[in-house]
Amino acid sequence: MLKKSLRFLATFLVPIIGSLLIRLISLTNKKVFHAPQTLSKEPFIMACWHGELLMIPYAYTTYRKTPHVKLLISEHFDGNLIAKTLGFFGFGTIRGSSTRGGAKALISAIKELKNGYDLGITPDGPKGPRHEVQDGIIVMAQKAKVKITVVEIKPSSFWQLSSWDRFVIPKPFGIINYYISDLIDVKDMDLEEARELIKRSLLTHE
């Protein structure tokens, strides 16, 4: 009973506190974008490592002032917290992952891309291995005939959790560098070739 009550409280409080924290970090850091001036007006997939997810809203809103995006988020409890937190930034969600609800999430993601939504995804989520690209992002891009942009988020000063993804929380009063790639087209690539290209692109500034 106590555990259920604590979960309910966390579900209510953590997203509010998390969204305020993200905004506070943004306000107290200089954000520097190493990025194309524009991306396609057509739907695209934006990808970043799970450990760099916290500050992703500001990468996306660089190109879409009014969010029109669905994030692929796991059905686990921590995924629920992430979904609710990013909901405060106007981001929708598709629930599912490679470990739970995967086929349903894959079909939903392709459908939403074809309906004109952008898609946000962590290609090594929800449980890793860290910095290993899973097949889902490639299948979605090829089936929906969309391109991929990858984002590396590198703060000058940060805390790093001991979680599987080595989750990064930028410290205030520093610089957050956003490295956003040109659009990557994987339509004519096999899975291994596309996986290696995406991984290499996401590790350029590691």
Task: Describe the structure in your own words.
The chain has one domain. The chain has helices at residues 2-27, 57-60, 77-87, 102-114, 136-144, 191-202; strands at residues 30-34, 44-47, 69-73, 92-95, 118-121, 147-155, 158-160, 168-170, 175-180. The protein is an alpha/beta fold and 206 residues long. The protein is built from six helices and nine strands. It is globular, with a radius of gyration of 16 Å. The strands form two sheets. The chain has a seven-stranded mixed beta sheet, sandwiched between helices. Strands 7-8 form a two-stranded antiparallel ribbon. α3 links the parallel β3 (69-73) and β4 (92-95).
Strand and helix layout:
Elements: H1 2-27, E1 30-34, E2 44-47, H2 57-60, E3 69-73, H3 77-87, E4 92-95, H4 102-114, E5 118-121, H5 136-144, E6 147-155, E7 158-160, E8 168-170, E9 175-180, H6 191-202
Parallel strand pairs: 1-9, 2-5, 2-6, 3-4, 3-5
Antiparallel strand pairs: 6-9, 7-8
Helix pairs in contact: 1-3, 4-5
In whole angstroms, how far apart are the ends?
A: 44 Å
- The backbone outline, from C-alpha atoms, is globular
Overall pLDDT level = 93
From the structure provided, what is the oligomeric state, counting identical versus distinct chains? single chain
Total number of helical segments?
6
Widest sheet: strand ordering? 1-9-6-2-5-3-4
**How many strands appear in the DSSP assignment?**
9
Sequence stretches where pLDDT stays below 50 over 5 or more residues: none
Total tally of structural domains: 1
The SSE order reads HEEHEHEHEHEEEEH
Helical content (DSSP H or I, runs of 4+):
25-40%
Taken as a percent bin, the fraction of beta residues is 15-25%
Q: Biggest β-sheet: count, sense, barrel?
A: 7 strands, mixed
Give the helix/strand class. Answer: alpha/beta
Taking Cα atoms only, what radius of gyration do you get, to the nearest Å? 16 Å
